[in-house]
Design goal:
This protein has ten helices and 21 strands. The protein is an alpha/beta fold. It folds into three domains: 181 residues, FAD/NAD(P)-binding domain, CATH 3.50.50; 150 residues, 3-Layer(bba) Sandwich (FAD/NAD(P)-binding domain); 57 residues, no CATH class. Strands 1, 2, 5, 6, 7, 8 and 19 form a seven-stranded mixed β-sheet that branches. Strands 10-17-11-12-13 form a five-stranded parallel β-sheet. Strands 14-15-16 form a three-stranded antiparallel β-sheet, with no helix packed on it. Strand 20 and strand 21 form a beta hairpin. Helix 1 packs parallel to helix 8. The chain starts with a strand and ends with a helix. The site of flavin-adenine dinucleotide (FAD) has 38 residues, from helix 1, helix 2, helix 8 and strand 20.
Length: 417
């Protein structure tokens, strides 16, 4: 089988990979950068929360890849079959190999449906089982909410790392809002399950979200992880993990269920012991984003083994770190810039309001705007930014442009205020 040689190969053309491929092709020029991505369409996944909430259409989250891959990038429309880092080679599913000097791995993460028996069958067959976490099923969510006029509307958070750890509860709030507006809220119990003991990992925002939950009469089941779905009898089976050594089986009957599924890394990472950490995620230095074993490999986006929440906003911030450190490594120097774990989560709490959470790797707030703006308070402005401004920033600032997150803006505002 044939092979091709590139200065940089980027594996995965999602938020992180497409951003890096376009950006590096501007720096390195035509034919030096290859992108491996099998899909024809690119999604702005953060919009799926609003699609599920009936506030945007699915088409608004989708654009053709061909319009967003730079003409300087060599695009291989194929799957990565395997990485061969000892020989600087990526093998594609069609048998072609791409050789590289430098490799950026950005395969994202994928739902691990097998961990919850019955879930995939429910998503395929039952109109009242839905998830915003898969392009195939997002459009099931709003009809399921609208068809719920009694019983329990149940929303789950998984016991694995997940994309945008706030999204499982954003759809909870949007659904509660929609059910109330239909005038049937008193007939429906709205409930949220979480495997941990708090509503959100950053205290400043958790305090506000607890108020939202209490004010709106949302029932919470902490320490609960979904283990099985019996969609035929509308029953979700959980483990109560309060005593993790002795999990207790709990069944909850539902009228509708929105499942945020468990996630895993794609096979070419998970099954490669040279690339993956023990967790199955790409083994990178949490600060430089360089692979811990191979200095010519960097990781970016959801697939990397760092304890920070996995978001497109995080990938934007990481893109500046990878770009700078890769240039240093190309010049035979050591990485010089360090990722602080910045991530952002606009927590919509209703059809026109939200909280703008931004925090670092230690779960400490790292807000762009000075505190007088009250990012932790429910405001229309944060919803407006999520629904109207951020999609444009994503497509034209990040994917096609130079956006590397708000660190520069934050520093300038700090000086100004
Ligand atoms: C419902 C929902 C709400 C969200 N809300 C927010 C939010 O409010 N704010 C925010 O910042 N982020 C949010 N996110 C998270 C954000 O979308 C992701 O963190 C971001 O897309 C990660 O980028 P990535 O490139 O790592 O992964 P992805 O964008 O998922 O891209 C991975 C790419 O790799 C490709 N790939 C996979 N396997 C292979 C293979 N074997 N070979 C070749 N290519 C492969 C895939 O086709 C895909 O294109 C949300 C996500 C969801 C689902």
């Amino acid at each position: 089988m044939s092979s091709k040689m590139f200065r940089v190969v980027v594996a995965g053309g999602g938020s992180a990979g497409l951003t890096m491929a376009n950006r590096l092709s501007r720096i390195l020029g035509a034919s030096n950068v290859a992108l491996i991505e099998p899909k024809d369409e690119h999604y702005y996944q953060p919009l799926w929360t609003l699609v599920g909430g009936g506030l945007k259409r699915m088409e608004q989250s989708e654009k053709p890849m061909k319009d967003f891959v730079s003409k300087n990038v060599h695009w291989e429309k194929e799957f990565v079959e395997a990485f061969d880092p000892d020989n600087n080679k990526v093998v594609l599913r069609n048998g072609i190999s791409l050789n590289y000097e430098y490799l950026i791995i950005a395969l994202g993460i994928t739902p691990d449906y097998q961990r919850v028996p019955g879930l995939l069958e429910g998503l395929e067959n039952a109109p009242n089982v839905c998830t915003n976490y898969d392009a195939k099923y997002v459009t099931k969510t709003f009809p399921a909410i609208q068809n719920t006029s009694k019983g329990t509307a149940l929303f789950t958070h998984p016991d694995t790392p997940i994309k945008c750890a706030g999204a499982p509860q954003k759809i909870l709030y949007l659904a509660e809002d929609a059910i109330r507006k239909r005038g049937v809220r008193s007939e429906v119990e709205v409930a949220f399950t979480h495997p941990g003991g708090v509503i959100f990992g950053v205290q400043k925002y958790a305090e506000q979200l607890e108020k939202v939950v209490n004010k709106r009469g949302i029932k919470t089941y902490f320490h609960h992880a979904l283990k099985e779905l019996d969609y035929a009898s509308n029953t979700a089976i959980f483990h109560n993990l309060k005593d993790p050594e002795n999990p207790v089986k709990v069944s909850i009957a539902y009228e509708m269920i929105h499942v945020s599924p468990p996630f895993k890394t794609p096979e070419p990472i998970a099954t490669n012991p040279n690339l993956a950490a023990g967790t199955g995620y790409l083994d990178v230095n949490t600060k430089t984003l360089q692979h811990n074993k191979y200095s010519n490999i960097f990781g970016i986006g959801d697939n990397i083994n760092i304890p920070s929440t996995k978001t497109a906003a995080g990938a934007a911030a990481q893109s500046g770190i990878v770009e700078k450190n890769l240039k240093e490594v190309m010049a035979k120097r050591e990485p010089v810039v360090f990722y602080d774990g910045y991530t952002s989560c606009p927590l919509v709490t209703g059809g026109n309001k939200g909280i703008l959470a931004e925090f670092d790797i230690n779960g400490q707030p790292l807000q762009t705007l000075p505190s007088i703006f009250g990012q932790h308070k429910e405001k229309k402005l944060w919803y407006f930014m999520k629904a109207r401004m951020m999609p444009h920033l994503y497509w034209y600032g990040m994917i096609k442009g130079p956006w590397k997150g708000p660190a520069v803006v934050r520093k300038m505002l700090r000086l100004g205020f």
